Inverse folding.
């Protein structure tokens, strides 16, 4: 059965706390932290972007898969912050890893669910027998407008998954998608920052799609929440995934290993894939994991994974996510953060 | 136009591809046409190990426009574990954390942006092993 044969994640070392951002705008940090259940977020270094983050995550995925990168037949990067408007991020990644040139490459975009889209298409190629291996990546370096609520959460990071049929560490047993025209969050061509529908982003957008996709997936699979060891729901903040999980019958314990948003923020296309990666770091053979992404616009992709014995062999071949999340952090002031993110106009 | 030269250098910039002399084993990085040790012209392409040791470094406080926002930053000479030497920016740390002899990994980062409309250039930089 087709599934994941290698996975890897990367988040930058830099962080900014909710306190530091709140201080800048005269807002109350305690009420924001309680409202969002977010403490701090990652910030990309001045030389980091979706491409460099994807490359590092992909290198770790290849390390774990133990395959020759030349065997990878397709590479898809999902992001809403591709560094070029025209020129695919994937072209740089394949040359950095030594994949191809006989490889199919494309960049995907669907707000925060571009990463699971990339994974879904990569998986479909392998399942159909088009190729032995395909890689799907979700990564972002997203921005919230200065002073906007999104500034507290929009962060940077990503994860890569190599799909294959041999030595599978997590089989994909079922997939399901749920999509509609819902304008909860968007960015027009040429604009630096996105716009969003405030409260409209909650019930009619995130919850409708995540809960419907979760229900649809479990109905199709004939499974209940108790059948899963773990679940990962897209995490634009700390509160939404816990609430969506509760509605679907999941406990906080099932969600916790992949609930990384309080310490890294919302990595957009990287969010649910990185939650899955953090969960694979602790999962045991036989465990089932439900993953439901969400992308504004709007849609959700759902997957049922079953972890195999192979996981024990590859887990320690690349850095685990927890150490990346917790160790050697470099905290920025708001001024440094504004410089890092290009929010200051330089005289160049 | 920087693009043709940049494209030519992708194997060394992205993948640390070096030339290993078929006669005496000298490791040329960047790759060369003639071996400086034995004069041989035949090389085999190898990928350097992406890890090494800091031989020396300096901290840049005043930089040209393209790098002005990044100051202060460190540039060091790194000897890779297979014995090649290269110059790279040392990032993701405070300059005072850097010491000669410390171990580093070589990773891909954006090296520079060619103005506001030109290409983005990527290549290797060093980060401390932690
Ligand atoms: Zn020689």
């Amino acid at each position: 059965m087709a599934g994941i044969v290698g996975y890897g994640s990367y988040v930058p070392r830099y962080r900014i706390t909710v306190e530091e951002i709140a201080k800048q705008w005269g807002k109350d940090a305690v009420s924001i932290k309680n409202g969002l259940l977010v403490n701090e977020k990652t910030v990309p270094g001045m030389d980091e972007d979706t491409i460099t983050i994807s490359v590092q995550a992909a290198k770790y995925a290849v390390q774990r898969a133990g395959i020759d990168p030349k065997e990878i037949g397709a590479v898809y990067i999902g992001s809403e912050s591709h560094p070029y408007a025209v020129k695919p991020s994937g072209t740089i990644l394949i040359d950095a890893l030594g994949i191809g040139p006989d490889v199919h490459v494309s960049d995907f975009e669907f707000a925060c669910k571009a990463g699971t889209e990339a994974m879904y298409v990569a998986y479909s190629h392998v399942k159909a027998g088009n190729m032995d291996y395909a890689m799907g990546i979700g990564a972002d370096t997203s921005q919230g407008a200065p002073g906007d609520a999104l500034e507290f959460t929009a962060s940077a990071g990503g994860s890569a998954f190599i799909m294959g049929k041999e030595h599978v560490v997590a089989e994909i047993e079922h997939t399901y998608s749920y999509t509609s025209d819902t304008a909860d969050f968007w960015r027009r061509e040429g604009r630096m920052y996105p716009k969003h529908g405030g409260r409209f982003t909650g019930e009619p957008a995130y919850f409708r799609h995540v809960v419907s996709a979760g229900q649809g997936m479990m109905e199709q699979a004939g499974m209940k929440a108790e059948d899963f060891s773990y679940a990962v729901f897209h995490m634009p903040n700390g509160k939404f995934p816990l609430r969506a999980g509760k509605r679907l019958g999941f406990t906080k314990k099932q969600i916790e290993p992949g609930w990384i948003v309080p310490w890294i923020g919302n990595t957009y296309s990287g969010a649910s894939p990185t939650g899955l990666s953090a969960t694979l770091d602790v999962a045991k053979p036989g465990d089932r994991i439900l993953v439901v992404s969400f992308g504004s616009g709007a849609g959700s992709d759902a997957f049922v994974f079953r972890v195999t014995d192979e996981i024990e062999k590859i887990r320690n071949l690349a850095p685990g996510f927890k150490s990346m999340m917790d160790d050697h952090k470099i905290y920025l002031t708001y001024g440094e953060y504004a410089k890092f993110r290009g929010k200051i106009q330089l005289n160049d | 136009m920087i693009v043709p030269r940049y494209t030519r250098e992708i194997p060394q910039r992205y993948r640390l591809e070096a030339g290993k002399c078929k006669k005496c084993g000298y490791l040329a990085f960047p790759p060369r046409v003639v071996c400086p040790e034995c004069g041989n012209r035949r090389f085999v392409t190898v990928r350097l190990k992406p890890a090494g040791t800091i031989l020396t470094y300096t901290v840049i406080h005043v930089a040209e426009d393209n790098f002005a926002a990044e100051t202060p930053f460190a540039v060091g000479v790194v000897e890779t574990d297979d014995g090649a030497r290269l110059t790279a920016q040392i990032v993701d740390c405070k300059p005072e954390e850097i010491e000669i002899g410390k171990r580093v990994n070589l990773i891909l980062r954006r090296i520079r942006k060619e103005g506001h409309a030109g290409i983005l250039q990527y290549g290797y930089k060093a980060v401390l092993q932690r």
In short: Residues B 21, 23-24, 26, 35, 37-38, 40 surround zinc ion (CB under 6 Å). The beta strands of chain B are 17-21, 27-28, 43-47, 51-60, 73-80, 85-91, 103-113, 120-128.
